[in-house]
C-alpha cells in the first residue's frame, strides 16, 4: 500500500500583530491584494473547521497572510469551548470542497485528502518605524 503524497500550494503567515495590516508584502514589499481563501483549520481534539476568510495575498511570493485575531474570533463564536492555542491552520481547499464541507456532505477524512497543505509557513517580526542608530 503506497501513501498518496499531499498536494502543496501557497505559503502562509499567521499575522499575530493587531496593529499591522500588511498592505505590502513583508518579504518583497509589493502591494498585497485581498482574496478569500477556504482555510482548513485543525482544532484539538480531532476536529476539522473550514473557514472561508478574506486574507491579504502577495502574488509575487504566493503568500497568504491571515490575521490571528480574526481567526480566533470566528473559532470562539463557532466553538466556545476552544482555548486560544488549540488550533492549527493547515492549508486550503477548493471552493467547491468548502461548500460541500459546510453542508456536511464531505467527511473530515475526505477534506484532509482533498486539502492543499501550505508549501511553507513563514514568520515575520515587525520592527516599529522610527530612528535607530546606524549598524556597524
Question: What's the gist of this structure?
Answer:
The protein has 136 residues and is α/β, with parallel strands linked by helices.
Question: Topology of this structure?
Answer:
Blueprint: E1 7-8, E2 11-15, E3 33-43, E4 47-58, E5 63-67, H1 68-78, E6 87-92, H2 95-103, H3 108-114, E7 116-117, E8 120-121
Parallel strand pairs: 1-7, 2-5, 2-8
Antiparallel strand pairs: 3-4, 3-6, 4-5, 6-7
List keywords for this structure.
single chain; 136 residues; alpha/beta; eight-stranded mixed sheet; 8 strands; 20% helix; globular
End-to-end Cα distance: 58 Å
As a whole number of angstroms, the C-alpha radius of gyration is 17 Å
Please, how many domains? 1
Instruction: Summarize the amount of helix as a percent range.
Output: 10-25%
Description of the structure:
There is one protein chain. With 136 residues, this protein is an alpha/beta fold. The chain has one domain. It is 20% helix and 33% strand. The chain contains 3 helices and 8 strands. It has helices at residues 68-78, 95-103, 108-114; strands at 7-8, 11-15, 33-43, 47-58, 63-67, 87-92, 116-117, 120-121. The chain has an 8-stranded mixed sheet. The longest helix has 11 residues, at 68-78. It is globular. The mean pLDDT is 88.
Amino acid at each position: 500500500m503506497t501513501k498518496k503524497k499531499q498536494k502543496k500550494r501557497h505559503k502562509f503567515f499567521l499575522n499575530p500583530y493587531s496593529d499591522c495590516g500588511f498592505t505590502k508584502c513583508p518579504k518583497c514589499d509589493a502591494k498585497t491584494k485581498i482574496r478569500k481563501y477556504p482555510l482548513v483549520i485543525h482544532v484539538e481534539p480531532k476536529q476539522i473547521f473550514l473557514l472561508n476568510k478574506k486574507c491579504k495575498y502577495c502574488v509575487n511570493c504566493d503568500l497568504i497572510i491571515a490575521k490571528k485575531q480574526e481567526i480566533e474570533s470566528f473559532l470562539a463564536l463557532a466553538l466556545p469551548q476552544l482555548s486560544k492555542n488549540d488550533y492549527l491552520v493547515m492549508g486550503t481547499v477548493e471552493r467547491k470542497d468548502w461548500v460541500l464541507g459546510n453542508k456536511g456532505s464531505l467527511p473530515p477524512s475526505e477534506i484532509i485528502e482533498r486539502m492543499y497543505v501550505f508549501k511553507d509557513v513563514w514568520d515575520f517580526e515587525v520592527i516599529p518605524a522610527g530612528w535607530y542608530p546606524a549598524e556597524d
